[in-house]
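USER: Study each token:
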Amino acid sequence: MYKPFVAAIAALLLSDFALAGSTPAPANAYLYIGWPVDGQVMPAGKPFKVWFGLRNMGVAPKGVAFPNTGHHHLLIDTELPAMDQEIPSDRNHLHFGAGETEAMVELAPGKHTLQLLMGDDKHVPHNPPVRSKKITITVR
């Protein structure tokens, strides 16, 4: 009687864990974009600051394997990458391996999505993955 319900709950709870990297993250880690905010309109033709917010976890440069730390990756106009592999490095997956907590970004006019994802010392998402909510901004 309860088997389908229990199986569905287990699948939801384990989905991030099963496909995540091997570096543990604090269960209460919280990653967010402090600026710009969802729905923000940014001026075209000039860079703007993206501010990375993180609670209950530390920031460390790539290559530094210290417990409960990682570094930021900004995802622009893309979906989350595979959670058990190295985060790609391209124009849609920006790496901040020096431990940066903000970045200057310039985007073409139009609608864009931004999302943060923490990576461990080897650029692989943590277990559970530490990711922000995806926001949408408009550049005009």
About this structure: The chain is about 10% helix and 35% strand. Helices lie at 3-18. The chain has one domain: 3-139. The beta strands are 30-35, 41-42, 48-55, 58-59, 69-76, 93-96, 102-105, 110-119, 135-139.
